[in-house]
Design goal:
The structure is a homodimer.
Chain A (H helix, E strand, L loop, with lengths): L1 H4 L3 E14 L2 E8 L9 E2 L1 E4 L6 H13 L5 E8 L10 E9 L16 E4 L10 H18 L13 H12 L5 H10 L3 E8 L7 E6 L16
Parallel strand pairs in A: 1-6
Antiparallel strand pairs in A: 1-2, 1-4, 2-3, 2-7, 5-6, 8-9
The structure holds a DNA duplex (27 and 27 nucleotides).
DNA sequence: ACAAAAGTGTTTTCTCTACACCCATGA
DNA sequence: TCATGGGTGTAGAGAAAACACTTTTGT
């Protein structure tokens, strides 16, 4: 196909917006840029797509390399392709967002020795267009959490309704009525109550719940009114 | 930056899922593939991203080249990047969807001499992964039309509520109650009634409406319950 | 005793839906 | 006159929101 030959070829990257939840806050994993340009600013985890892999596979590889985690929840957000988005050389980046459990995150990797979790509502200056990437990813997460229990990817396998509500409040940056939230969530019929109770977060103790098998990815009617 | 040098470079394409509305049906503009492989199947309008343009700009250029139209509504859907998605050579494609008014579409262009509008619910076999692209684009259009009057991009500048309802029925492939649809649309406060009436579609005659200035792109509460 | 979260119930408001009904008019 | 779409009104179902209230237990 001579046809193809005449067209330019580009470096294609993946950038990962990695969400985690800790201490009642929704956080983002960033690492500091150690060299110019933009030295001192912070950056999303990224890497270049290779010959034998799709963007999705590349994102999983980057996740594995930088967090030590496999099988992470991952979804494509959008491609960023402005010719000037990186000053040194043109790179087209396909942005993904990932949800991980911070408690499972392995800190002792060389790549992430200097990485840091930042609260989404208080991010440091980011390089290039990474701030737009983070914005778009958060909107996608809000959309996702509005129709699935995507949030449960961010919590331990057993969690209380208080923890789940706090997570949703962190994702949507707003409060939810405790009673109404509980009733809504339970009415969706995707949570299973365990016999175990949590006694650390309250005096009375709250039952633990887990997501029912095969319900984690299920599209629900609507959990949160978004927009 | 020596760092960049070692990574592979890829052909990057844009493919456009071009929606139009005609004779009460939502349609897609396709053109027949004249050579192997996949000769005889139909294809989305596409082209390669050039050095000096973003994917969005490339899509606008493809739109202009193939339909003769500028300033078309265009939105990115997703990047398709599987290494095997095109058999002859690896191409990463960034899919966009476009909304155009078929009445403004110029047929007499060499590129589109053989192009054809196909009803979305009765598409011919498409090349490669173009059927998945079309599927995803339709879902995005449904989402878009659920929170904005995106649909109005597909209609003439003045339209009746019957025409608008028929369009929404075509987009969502379902019926809407005439009375309820009217009330819902009018309650959104984005339509302006004109003094003019349409007398061709009904005996009584129906008022024309237009989208109020600055309201076309506005995010609305929710027009259609999607999902 | 008190605070703080767990958990349940009630009331009010709002939206969606179905459907009845009259109007205007061309065939 | 009859069929067809234009346009308005209303009753009922169901969901969301606001909020009262009771339970439990560590401090």
């Amino acid at each position: 196909m001579e046809y193809y030959k005449q067209h330019p070829r580009f470096l294609v990257a993946v950038d990962c917006v990695i969400f985690g939840y800790e201490a009642g806050e929704l956080k983002l994993l960033l690492y500091p840029r150690a060299f110019e340009p933009e030295k001192g600013k912070w950056s999303l985890m990224g890497g270049f797509v290779q010959e034998n892999e799709s963007a999705c596979e590349a994102a999983h590889r980057v996740l594995a390399e930088t967090t030590g985690m496999n099988g992470v929840f991952l979804e494509q957000v959008s491609a960023f392709s402005s010719p000037e988005r990186e000053p040194s050389e043109r790179v087209i980046s396909i942005v993904h967002f990932a949800l991980i459990r911070i408690d499972r995150f392995k800190k002792n990797r060389p790549v992430t020795a200097s990485a840091k979790w930042w609260p989404v509502n208080n991010l440091p200056p980011l390089i290039f267009d990474h701030d737009q990437m983070a914005d778009q990813a958060l909107k996608r997460l809000q959309q996702k959490a509005g129709t699935t229990l995507a949030g449960s990817e961010l919590l331990p396998s057993k969690f209380t309704l208080l923890q789940l509500r706090n997570l949703y409040e962190a994702i949507y940056q707003r409060g939810f009525d405790p009673g109404n939230f509980r009733k809504k969530m339970l009415s969706l019929n995707v949570l299973e109550r365990l016999d175990q109770k949590n006694s650390t977060d309250s005096k009375k103790g709250a039952f633990y719940y887990k997501v029912k098998p095969n319900k984690a990815e299920k599209e629900l009617e609507r959990i949160v009114k978004y927009l």
